[in-house]
């Protein structure tokens, strides 16, 4: 059906610079939002009324590790994008590492694009990578259509994706500024002094091995890099991924106050989990940087409230159960990464609604701002005339307990099993085409690659 309408007493629409929830009827034609009518408007096309359920813009998740090609036994585009659709995510951006080859050259990017054919249930953009050896390849990689690039300041765990130093970043930033794309940074610096920490089955031993100072120092370095870039006339966009340490928030606020193009994201696991409550030997909770104490979590929420943290993304980083060492509880050997792609909105809504947030706020934090960050905001991230008809239907009054059997990503494991959450995704539409409804996937994969320069 290429021409139809959805209506509800609660629709989050975007006009001008802000969104609001109103009663409305959304007319969809040829994959786009054709018009926004008053609720109850008579139209010539079929109209579906979802009652009190909320019609929201589809989520845009700009931090997802899919690992295909090369490590498809960890995850793949088919299962990852199905999980995304089940979570109301209509657009995601894939990370450049954990796949083989890593996305650091035009040729590697073309290999990844070949791998996505007929596997995308939602639309998908791609980040490239910056490593010490590929500075000369950056221009071609960016021209090929990646939306931006990412680097690590610490060992990534993947030999083909080594960390960069200041000189590498200084060489890369003028190229990134020319293309006006963001530079994503995994901000941990191994400053030493903690290598003698014995990592046991106790979660706190792992936490002690990756202190806040590693993040704090890395973010301070990136502010220096941003200042140098601005002074050179480039003013490259610097973005801190998966912020965990609340101690770095003042540094981020200072960078913003100076007029630097500096931003940071955080993730559901840092906002919903606390170190004090993580059982020992439960390797599913391991990620880098680590989940920290509850007091730190509360400070992160405050930063989401006041804008020091710009948005919330999943950092879905899956692997095989064997690599998680679930049976032995060996936290030191376990791969670090949280798998929870489809549960982000219910997890955040459960916490956020008791803190005074509305679903309009979450649409901004998980859709509009993430689309803007990835350079997709002219087509994604809001319900407004002319944008892609990317829509999720959300029952904000429902609740459920997360279980293994409802997981759509490849391996049916997540640290959230047994957790009760509020809000449930009922339907997901990508460019006006229903891809998910009541726990069923509809038709076949219709997602498309999103390439910079072809949007």
Characterize the structure shown.
The protein has two domains: 3-49, no CATH class; 54-377 and 385-441, Alpha-Beta Barrel (TIM Barrel). Helix content is 26%, strand content 23%. The chain has eleven helices and 18 strands. A hairpin with a 2-residue loop joins strand 1 and strand 2. The chain is globular. Its cofactor is Zn(2+). Keywords: Hydrolase, Metal-binding, Zinc. Homotetramer. Belongs to the metallo-dependent hydrolases superfamily. DHOase family. Class I DHOase subfamily. Belongs to the metallo-dependent hydrolases superfamily. Allantoinase family.
Largest pleated sheet: 9 strands, mixed
Total count of strands: 18
Q: How would you name the CATH homologous superfamily of the largest domain?
A: Metal-dependent hydrolases
CATH fold name of the largest domain: TIM Barrel
Report helical residue fraction.
25-40%
Summarize this structure as a short list of keywords or feature phrases:
455 residues, alpha/beta, nine-stranded mixed β-sheet, six-stranded parallel β-sheet, 18 strands
Topology:
Blueprint: E1 3-15, E2 18-29, E3 32-38, E4 47-49, E5 54-57, E6 59-64, H1 77-86, E7 89-94, H2 106-115, E8 123-126, E9 128-129, H3 138-143, E10 149-152, H4 166-179, E11 183-186, H5 203-209, H6 212-231, E12 238-240, H7 249-257, E13 262-266, H8 268-272, H9 294-306, E14 311-312, H10 344-352, H11 359-373, E15 391-401, E16 420-430, E17 433-437, E18 440-441
Parallel strand pairs: 1-4, 1-5, 6-7, 7-8, 9-10, 10-11, 11-12, 12-13, 13-14
Antiparallel strand pairs: 1-2, 2-3, 5-15, 15-16, 16-17, 17-18
């Amino acid at each position: 059906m290429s021409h139809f309408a959805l209506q509800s007493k609660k629709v989050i629409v975007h006009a001008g610079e802000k969104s609001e929830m109103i009663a409305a009827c959304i007319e969809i034609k040829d994959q786009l939002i054709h018009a926004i009518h008053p609720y109850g408007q008579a139209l010539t096309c079929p109209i579906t009324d979802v009652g009190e359920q909320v019609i929201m813009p589809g989520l845009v998740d700009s931090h997802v590790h899919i690992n295909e090609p090369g490590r498809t036994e960890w995850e793949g585009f088919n299962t990852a994008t199905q999980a995304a659709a089940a979570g109301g995510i209509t657009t995601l951006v894939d990370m450049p590492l954990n796949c083989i080859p890593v996305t650091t050259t035009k040729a590697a990017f073309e290999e990844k694009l070949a791998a996505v054919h007929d596997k995308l249930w939602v639309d998908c953009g791609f980040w490239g990578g910056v490593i010490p050896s590929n500075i000369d390849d950056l221009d071609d990689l960016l021209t090929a259509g990646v939306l931006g690039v990412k680097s690590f300041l610490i060992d990534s765990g993947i030999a083909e994706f080594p960390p960069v130093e200041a000189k590498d970043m200084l060489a890369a930033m003028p190229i990134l500024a020319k293309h006006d794309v963001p530079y994503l940074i995994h901000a941990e610096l191994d400053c030493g002094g903690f290598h003698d920490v014995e990592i046991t089955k106790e979660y706190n031993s792992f936490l002690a091995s990756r202190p806040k100072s590693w993040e704090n120092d890395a973010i301070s370095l990136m502010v220096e890099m941003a200042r140098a870039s601005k002074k050179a006339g480039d003013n490259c966009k610097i973005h801190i991924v998966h912020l965990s340490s609340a101690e770095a928030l003042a540094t981020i606020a200072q960078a913003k106050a100076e007029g630097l193009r500096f931003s940071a994201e955080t993730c559901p696991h840092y906002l919903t989990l606390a170190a004090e409550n993580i059982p020992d030997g439960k390797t599913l909770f391991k990620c880098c940087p680590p989940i920290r104490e509850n007091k730190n979590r509360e400070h992160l929420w405050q930063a989401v409230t006041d804008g020091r943290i710009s948005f919330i993304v999943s950092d879905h980083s899956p692997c095989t159960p064997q690599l998680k060492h679930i049976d032995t509880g060996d936290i030191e050997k376990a791969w670090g990464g949280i798998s929870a792609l489809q549960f982000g909105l219910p997890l955040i809504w459960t916490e956020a609604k008791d803190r005074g947030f509305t679903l309009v706020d979450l649409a901004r934090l998980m859709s509009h701002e993430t689309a803007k960050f990835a350079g997709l905001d002219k087509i994604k991230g809001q319900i407004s005339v002319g944008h892609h008809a990317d829509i999720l239907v959300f029952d904000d009054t429902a609740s459920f307990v997360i279980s293994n059997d409802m997981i759509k990503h490849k391996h049916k494991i997540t640290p959230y099993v047994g957790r009760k959450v509020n809000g449930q995704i009922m339907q997901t539409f990508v460019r006006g085409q229903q891809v998910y409804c009541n726990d069923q996937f509809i038709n076949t994969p219709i997602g498309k690659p999103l390439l910079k320069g072809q949007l």
